Amino acid sequence: MSEVKTLANGEKFSHASVGSLHGFEGKQFVKDATGATSCEISFGTLPTGAAVPFFHSHKENEENYIILSGAGKFQVNDDVFDVAEGSVIRVATNCDRNLKCTSAEPMSYICIQAKEGSLGGYTMTDAEITERENRL
Ligand code: ZN
């Protein structure tokens, strides 16, 4: 099982890592390591032929799954569809979900859980270009 490590905490940021995603195993939530207040993020990996051992549903939070590698099947209630590296799947509240790896390589993914309907302004309406000395 991989672990999440907090690498740095600043006044305005937190930096955590689950390490290399190659060889990452299991499931790891990172909200506690970063102190995130708007969403929970987890990394997950399923070996060939494996599915999450249970279906689950959320009452208030939608989930957005991003498949990073591998391929498989995704089920939402009774609907089943193929997913693969690059897939982004949004799952609404109050429905059952599960995923299974069917590829020879493990399927790794990120799941971002946030309150359904909570996104207000974003990108063009929430962000603004700022002036700052570039120290990179
Ligand atoms: Zn969930």
Summarize the structure.
The chain is mostly beta strands. It contains 1 helix and 10 strands.
**What portion of the residues fall into strands of 2 or more residues?**
35-45%
Q: pLDDT below 50 for ≥5 consecutive residues: which ranges?
A: none
Question: Major sheet: size, sense and barrel closure?
Answer: 5 strands, antiparallel
Strand order of the largest sheet: 3-4-10-5-8
What is the residue-mean pLDDT, rounded to a whole number? 94
Question: How many H/I helical runs?
Answer: 1
What is the N-to-C order of secondary-structure elements (H for helix, E for strand)? EEEHEEEEEEE
Bound molecules: zinc ion
Structural class: mainly beta
What gap, in angstroms, lies between the N and C termini? 34 Å
Helicity level, as a percent range? under 10%
Description:
By secondary structure, the protein is mainly beta. It has one helix and ten strands; from the N terminus they run βββαβββββββ. The chain starts with a strand and ends in a 21-residue tail after the last strand. Zinc ion (ZN) binds next to loops.
Layout of secondary structure:
Layout: E1 5-9, E2 14-17, E3 27-29, H1 31-34, E4 40-46, E5 61-69, E6 71-76, E7 79-84, E8 88-91, E9 97-101, E10 107-115
Antiparallel strand pairs: 1-2, 3-4, 4-10, 5-8, 5-10, 6-7, 6-9
Bound molecules: zinc ion.
Residues 56, 58, 63, 113 line the site of zinc ion.
Keywords:
single chain; 136 residues; mainly beta; five-stranded antiparallel β-sheet; 43% strand; binds zinc ion
